[in-house]
Amino acid sequence: MKYSQQIGIVAALALIAVCFMPWIEIPTLKIVLSGTNGKVNDALTFGRQVVPHTVYCSLLILFFIVQKVWAKRINLFLGFINFSWAIKNYIIFSMCRPECPEIKPALYLLVFFAFVILLATFLPKIKLKS
Question: What is the DSSP string of 85-99?
Answer without folding.
Answer: HHHHHHHHHH--SSS
